């Protein structure tokens, strides 16, 4: 009998241990036997018992042969508990049940099982207590949510949740659950995990999760995640990235004994004083979470520090006093009764004086924590003040941006305030309902005179400051708008007095210094006011963040509220990651790059030490000569010496931006800025949002634009625009050009670009219209103290001179002689100069001519690649590339893996795969195939470091042909086929019977006159020597006269002249369109008050005249390609990827997926069709990123466009095809 009991005990032990281990992983019988000290046969018998008699789902592992594991999701059984342990779990369950109003079946069932296990007679009473839970109101939805969260947490499956904030709207999130944690203070349970939307850990109250659905895939909880460490400084459940704040409280002697009974915080210190009272302190991550607990002690608890928490409790006490009639509103000064923000749902308002202080402190926080010393010095020198005085003065001015809200025209917008203000003697004269009333314009109307009177500022200077502040919503007011503002909107003497009081209150708080100038000359003054306007707009957005600056209640102590607002502003900057200044350490060239500098880079290094002020540098050299590394070195040296704010790299296209982003990140890491990741900024990168935009408090103005300003302003907190404000960014040239177009908040862009180094790559790719914009941008960048580096393989002399003179702001500046390759540089004090670069070893590229027919090109490739080799075929249009690719497929001499098609008219997700495949095979360190052909468009002619043995190219402008040639024999390598040992470019061009070239669709891509001249310059050549021939060819094609070109054949004369006239007409139009859209130059006397057309960005639905075009040409359209599979819509044709509900606003994860499946289309038939007949889906129309996107739904890879003779076909290999339908 005793031996049988021992055997039973051993078997029970093995069952418990085997179940525990099976839950952890998969084991073979032999492994478990060795681990548990028994033989494999015994393990086998017990495993069979556990599956057949105990019902445990122990199954063979699908991938690890001979091993078994317990299926996830099985009931947890056979956990031995002592009675004390069972009671502890019972108490935890009771606590969980008491926290919610609705019954939770899993809680009731757990309580019942625990109660039964405890034995009679106690069990019967406890079972009844469990029944109370089931008697509560049931919530099956919450039960389902909890079950899903538990499953996803335990099985490490991402979960999609729909969560609503207490007063907000539901929002969808993708979360990796790391922990389900109860609140210490009993307000529920919380899900803690990585949120894709926030880009970091986030906390969600489970009771507010309306829906939870498992997502695809799995995740791994980081090894360094520890809930105890995370919440070590938390008061309850809320953790923070910031350092904890020391909270110090004083308790009265009456409650000190109660305080001593409990450990309220793991790191608390309690000191009992002689009079019986006590001081309690602890480092707390989110002290605001303590407010209800502190409030619960009433007058027996006093907050000693931090100051802002004491002030918040004091404000709370005042609200309580008013609520209970202990104090009345009569104690509120008249100027503090004016409101700036209102919540119509709750009836709360935020006092105007508080908002002015909020924004002033936000501006000061930016000055102290985000601005470099160089930028602070720039402002201080312009104002002729020291840095501290300049900061206080400018923050004082910034705070006065909304002074115009102290007017009857604005205050009447919130009806409940009118009667109260009238009782204080502020009259509201009648106003017509349709009279416009812009509070920012009223600021301009009223502030200038008050600044002069109160601070002694010169009246002209005061007027300029007021005008700059009047533009804080995006555009400076015009002189006509100021003149037409009605007196009944501005108010009478009583309103003047209250505005003066506001100015004096802010003056007393910030102590501005006397100012006698805004700059040494008009240009510097305008530059300072433009930077200031951008700064004020950003400060206003920060000061309007709802969660950072909650509504206050008057009366307020201005000094105390100023301290509180300063703390809130610094905290807001930390949340936005705008605190701290990236400083450039000094690094030698060989630490930044893994090679020795070449001749070009050595010249750049010497130049970096010579230039002592913001400069323009133009580096012209052949592809592959290290221009980018030279530019990075210059940027690093200038950043250190000139104390610049950062770096922005502007590329001509999105594809080149993606490539440059990787190179810029590597450079910054080599520089030692490991914590800095440059933001990628272009029309696709904007989707890759690392954090949600904050909610902005707004006043609803009847005269606001159709799209509310807050919706548009929030876009500035998205990466696409925020990257201009961040220290380091990479993107397209378009974002830079927008800063000199009459767009809303153009001065914010200029502010973001000021005092940085800007690198513009491939500047030869700009057309006439872009060149006009770019020259204006160069003038503004010099005025902003920005250094500019231009990189180009080839630049016409005229273009180079125009760029230099534009930067210097001097159309008559003398130009140096420049011999290619060269570095040209210019500063305001030293003028323009040039550095010679030793010419690299030349190379000879053979030139061959073929016709454009697909058959000729197929035959040529077949002959060229008989002995192997890698060829590139560059077509000027996507349609031609697709047709040629299909012709090569049909020819059959290449295997499937030997043929690639690479162009931009394909979803980004697929295009990235193709780009990686191209770089992986033909890049410098690629796994090069024995034979291959890449058919591509212009996507491979810039920035991609590729090397081909032979190339065929459609005829293009000569500078682009030279650029394409740079991909021929680019790298030194062995093993090229003997027949391709000499680099050869085959140029494809068709001519008619008279010998005149036929441009077909290429004439829509490139200027026909330039194509004519390029053909004339090249047609008699059999080779091109680089770099020797480069400058001559460029001048021959782009120079002013025909002297360097062969005489055209007689048949060419008429079409050539026709092409020239059309080009000149287009250039005149481009000049007109650019001039009409551009902001004035920085020295324009009417800069501030001439007005803005408020051109719109990225809205192809409006007329061209109202668009901020950075490129002149037909509009394009963003099409999101979705696939209907089994009745649902998905991003991939096989039904993989996320499912899309078009009537729901997508979360950030889905937005990324939609971005990766978006195609830009320029086909004008399609563009006009969608703009005229289609609308974005319902769930996208108010989304700041999706509102101008349209959807195409494919079934089996095809989509019919109703009303047009086209059908669309989408294929992973060919991309998007636009096929004409033949009439039936």
Protein model, in words:
Keywords: Antiviral defense, ATP-binding, Helicase, Hydrolase, Metal-binding, Nuclease, Nucleotide-binding. Residues 608-813 form the Helicase ATP-binding domain. This is CRISPR-associated helicase Cas3. The chain is an alpha/beta fold. It has six domains: 2-70, Arc Repressor Mutant, subunit A (Orthogonal Bundle), CATH 1.10.10; 245-323; 396-576, Hypothetical protein af1432 (Orthogonal Bundle), CATH 1.10.3210.30; 598-690 and 707-836, Rossmann fold (3-Layer(aba) Sandwich), CATH 3.40.50; 843-1046, P-loop containing nucleotide triphosphate hydrolases (Rossmann fold), CATH 3.40.50; 1114-1220, no CATH class. It has 43 helices and 39 strands. The strands form ten sheets. The protein has an eight-stranded mixed β-sheet, with helices on both faces. The chain has a seven-stranded mixed β-sheet with strand order 26-27-25-28-29-24-32, sandwiched between helices. The protein has a five-stranded antiparallel β-sheet with strand order 8-7-6-5-9, covered by helices on one side. Strand 30 (990-991) and strand 31 (997-998) form a beta hairpin. It is globular and about 105 Å long.
């Amino acid at each position: 009998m005793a031996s049988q009991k021992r055997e039973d005990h051993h078997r029970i032990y093995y069952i418990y241990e085997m179940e525990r281990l099976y839950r952890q992983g998969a084991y073979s019988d032999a492994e478990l036997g060795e681990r548990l000290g028994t033989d494999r046969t015994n393990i086998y018998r017990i495993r069979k018992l556990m599956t057949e008699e105990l019902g445990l789902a122990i199954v063979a592992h699908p991938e690890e042969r001979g091993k078994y594991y317990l299926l996830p999701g099985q009931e947890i059984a056979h956990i031995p508990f002592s009675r004390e342990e069972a009671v502890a779990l019972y108490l935890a369950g009771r606590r969980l049940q008491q926290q919610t109003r609705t019954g939770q079946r899993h809680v009731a069932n757990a309580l019942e099982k625990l109660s039964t296990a405890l034995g009679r007679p106690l069990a019967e009473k406890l079972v009844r207590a469990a029944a109370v839970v089931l008697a509560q109101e049931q919530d099956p939805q919450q039960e389902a949510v909890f079950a899903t969260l538990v499953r996803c947490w335990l099985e490490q499956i991402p979960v999609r949740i729909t969560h609503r904030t207490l007063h907000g709207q539901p929002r969808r999130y993708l979360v990796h659950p790391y922990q389900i944690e109860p609140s210490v203070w009993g307000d529920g349970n919380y899900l803690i995990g990585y949120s894709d939307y926030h880009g970091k850990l986030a906390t969600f109250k489970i009771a507010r999760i309306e829906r939870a659905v498992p997502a695809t895939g799995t995740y791994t909880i980081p090894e360094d995640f520890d809930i105890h460490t995370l919440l070590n400084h938390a008061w309850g459940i809320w953790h923070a990235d910031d350092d904890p704040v020391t909270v110090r409280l004083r308790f009265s002697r009456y409650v000190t004994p109660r305080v001593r009974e409990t450990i309220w915080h793991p790191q608390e210190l309690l000191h009992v004083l002689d009079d019986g009272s006590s001081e309690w302190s602890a480092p707390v991550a989110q002290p605001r979470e303590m407010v209800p607990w502190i409030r619960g002690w009433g007058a027996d608890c006093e907050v000693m520090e931090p100051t802002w928490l004491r002030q918040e409790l004091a404000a709370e006490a005042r609200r309580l006093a008013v609520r209970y009639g202990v104090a009345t509103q009569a104690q509120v000064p008249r100027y503090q009764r004016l409101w700036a923000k209102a919540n119509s749902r709750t009836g709360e308002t935020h006092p105007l004086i508080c908002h002015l202080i909020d924004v002033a402190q936000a501006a000061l926080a930016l000055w102290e924590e985000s601005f470099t010393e160089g930028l602070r010095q720039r402002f201080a020198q312009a104002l002729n003040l020291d840095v501290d005085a300049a900061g206080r003065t400018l923050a004082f001015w910034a705070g006065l941006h909304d002074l115009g809200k102290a007017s009857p025209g604005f205050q009447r917008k919130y009806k409940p305030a009118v009667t109260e203000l009238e009782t204080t003697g502020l009259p509201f004269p009648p106003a017509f309902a349709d009279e416009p009333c812009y509070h920012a314009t009223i600021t301009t109307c009223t502030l200038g005179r008050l600044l002069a009177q109160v601070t002694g500022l010169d009246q002209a200077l005061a007027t300029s400051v007021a005008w700059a502040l009047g533009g804080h919503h995006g555009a400076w007011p015009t002189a006509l708008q100021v003149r037409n503002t009605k007196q009944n909107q501005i108010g009478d003497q009583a309103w003047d007095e209250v505005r003066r009081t506001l100015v004096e209150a802010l003056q007393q708080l910030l102590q501005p210094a006397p100012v006698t100038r805004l700059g040494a000359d008009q240009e510097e003054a305008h530059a300072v006011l433009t930077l200031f306007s951008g700064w004020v707009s950003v400060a206003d957005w920060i000061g309007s963040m709802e969660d950072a600056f909650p509504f206050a209640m008057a009366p307020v102590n201005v000094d105390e509220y100023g301290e509180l607002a300063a703390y809130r502003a610094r905290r807001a900057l930390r949340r936005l990651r705008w605190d701290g200044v990236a400083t450039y350490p000094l690094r030698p060239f060989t630490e930044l790059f893994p090679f020795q500098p070449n001749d070009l880079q050595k010249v750049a290094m010497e130049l970096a030490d010579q230039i002592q002020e913001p400069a323009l540098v133009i580096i012209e050299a052949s592809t592959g000569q290290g221009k980018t590394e030279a530019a990075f070195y210059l940027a690093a040296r200038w950043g250190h010496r000139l104390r610049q704010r950062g770096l922005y790299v502007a590329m001509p296209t999105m594809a080149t931006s993606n490539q440059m982003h990787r190179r810029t990140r590597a450079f910054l890491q080599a520089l030692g800025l490991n914590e800095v990741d440059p933001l990628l900024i272009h029309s696709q990168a904007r989707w890759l949002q690392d954090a949600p935009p904050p909610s902005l408090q707004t006043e609803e103005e009847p005269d606001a634009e159709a799209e509310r300003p807050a919706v548009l302003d929030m876009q500035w907190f998205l990466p696409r625009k925020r990257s201009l404000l961040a220290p380091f960014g990479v993107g397209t040239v378009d974002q830079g050009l927008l800063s000199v177009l009459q767009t809303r908040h153009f001065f914010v862009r200029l502010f973001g670009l000021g005092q940085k180094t800007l690198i513009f790559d491939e500047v030869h790719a700009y057309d006439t219209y872009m060149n006009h914009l770019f020259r204006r941008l160069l003038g503004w960048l010099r005025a902003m103290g920005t250094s500019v580096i231009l990189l180009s393989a080839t630049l016409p002399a005229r273009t180079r001179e125009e760029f230099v003179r534009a930067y210097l702001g001097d159309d008559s500046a003398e130009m140096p002689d420049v011999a290619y390759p060269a570095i040209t540089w210019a500063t305001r004090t030293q003028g323009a100069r040039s550095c010679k670069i030793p010419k690299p070893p030349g190379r000879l590229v053979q030139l061959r001519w073929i016709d454009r027919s697909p058959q000729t090109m197929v035959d040529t490739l077949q002959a060229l690649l008989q002995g192997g080799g890698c060829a590139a075929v560059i077509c000027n249009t996507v349609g031609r590339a697709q047709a040629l690719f299909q012709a090569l497929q049909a020819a059959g001499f290449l295997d499937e893996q030997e043929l690639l098609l690479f162009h931009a008219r394909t979803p980004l997700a697929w295009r990235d795969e193709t780009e990686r495949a191209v770089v992986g095979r033909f890049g410098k360190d690629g796994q090069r195939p024995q034979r291959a052909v890449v058919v591509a468009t212009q996507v491979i002619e810039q920035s991609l470091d590729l090397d081909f043995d032979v190339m065929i190219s459609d005829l293009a402008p000569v500078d682009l042909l030279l650029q394409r040639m740079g991909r021929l024999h680019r790298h030194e390598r062995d093993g090229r086929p003997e027949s391709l040992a000499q680099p050869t470019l085959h140029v494809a061009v068709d001519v008619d019977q008279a010998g005149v070239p036929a441009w077909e669709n290429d004439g829509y891509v490139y200027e026909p006159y330039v194509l004519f001249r390029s053909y004339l310059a090249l047609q008699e050549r059999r080779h091109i020597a680089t770099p020797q021939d480069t400058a001559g060819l460029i001048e021959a094609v782009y120079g002013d006269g025909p002297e360097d070109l062969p005489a055209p054949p007689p048949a060419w004369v008429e079409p050539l002249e026709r092409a020239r006239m059309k080009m000149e007409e287009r250039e005149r139009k481009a000049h007109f369109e650019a001039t009409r859209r551009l902001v004035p130059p920085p020295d324009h006397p009417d800069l501030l008050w001439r007005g803005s057309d408020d051109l719109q960005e990225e809205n192809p639905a409006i007329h061209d005249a109202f668009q901020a075009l950075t490129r002149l040409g037909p509009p394009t359209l963003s099409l999101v390609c979705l696939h209907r599979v089994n009745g649902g819509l998905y991003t991939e044709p096989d039904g993989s990827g996320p499912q899309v509900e078009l009537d729901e606003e997508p979360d950030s994860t889905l937005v990324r997926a939609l971005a990766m499946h978006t195609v830009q289309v320029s086909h004008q038939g399609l563009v006009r069709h969608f703009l005229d007949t289609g609308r974005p889906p319902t769930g996208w129309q108010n989304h700041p990123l999706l509102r101008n996107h349209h959807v195409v739904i494919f079934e089996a890879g095809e989509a019919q466009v109703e009303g047009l003779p086209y059908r669309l076909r989408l294929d992973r290999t060919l991309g998007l095809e636009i096929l004409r339908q033949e009439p039936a």
